[in-house]
């Protein structure tokens, strides 16, 4: 049920994803929803977003650890999202963003899960920048910027049905990190 | 009816915005919807997004024309969105983004209106960068990057209920433009 919910949220967002569609897509018995998720749709969606963010967290950890420099890690992230956008006909970008835009201002549980997911990704990037020699405060600033730029590019790729915004953002982020690189 | 639709889309997106709510909020007679918008919700939303994007296009034109440098124009954009996010309790960021994420992959009319709105904003920024001395191709690249970064920051401000992502993105974009500034 969590996987079916995550897939629907990723493609169409919170409001369009009805409980009946979740039950139909998951094949779970109807009564099991409120048994497992007494908080209803909001609780189910919170858990589904947590689950949907896990592959991305694992990818980030793997790519950041393997890349010789933080700039090189950008390529791994772009390859992941580029593949996902292309194979889904631009239906799947960031698994959190649509729900964040629809619900974070009004739903406290969904605000909490979206915000903490983004904070986790930002911390991973900041830690890798610190390892590369950036002062911790500067690493946090650059990680925040990189996350904004990539999230915006993913949205614009979907709006334009094109991978160009993501490729351009990756190239500029690489240049920016090189400009800002601390002198050893 | 267009204004009521634009306000609802801005706060909650496409799927959550029902025709009954639009009619209630606008005070328009029910029969007038399909008279004025024979294409139904999709046509009404397309027109509402065009209208909602106009104040932002005008702001961009004004700010870009008045700013002594392209970097200075960033402050005007940030002040506009910062005020809007704060006074709406983070319900209102970019008036196009939520619908773009929800609908651009599946609805051709909505993809067209979202894509052309973003293309227009990007062209305005690119033209200002070209006036500041960037080669046209480079100006277009930097404009694409700036749009991605600001759109992502607006989304993250809503997710975190904080203005920090926008302030950080503005500061980094300013630094990036200064690094990339063509030598006279």
Question: What layout of secondary structure does this protein have?
Answer:
Two copies of one chain form a homodimer.
Chain A: H1 2-12, H2 19-26, H3 32-36, H4 40-66, H5 70-87, H6 97-103, H7 108-131, H8 136-160, H9 164-180
Helix pairs in contact in A: 1-2, 1-4, 4-5, 4-7, 5-9, 6-7, 7-8, 8-9
Account of the protein in words:
The structure is a homodimer of 184-residue chains. With 184 residues, the first copy, chain A, is mostly helical. Chain A contains nine helices and no strands. In chain A, 77% of the residues lie in helices and 0% in strands. At the A-B interface, helix 6, helix 7, helix 8 and helix 9 of A face helix 6, helix 7, helix 8 and helix 9 of B.
- How much helicity do the residues of chain A have? over 70%
Poorly predicted regions of chain A: none
Q: What is the assembly state of the chains in this entry?
A: homodimer
Distance between the termini of chain A: 51 Å
- Averaged pLDDT of chain A: 94
Largest sheet of chain A: none
Structural class of chain A: mainly alpha
Sheet-strand content of chain A, in percent, reads under 5%
Radius of gyration over C-alpha positions of chain A, nearest whole angstrom: 18 Å
Greatest interface: A-B, 53 and 53 residues
H/E topology pattern of chain A? HHHHHHHHH
Helical stretch tally of chain A? 9
Anisotropy-based shape of chain A: elongated
Number of strands of chain A: 0
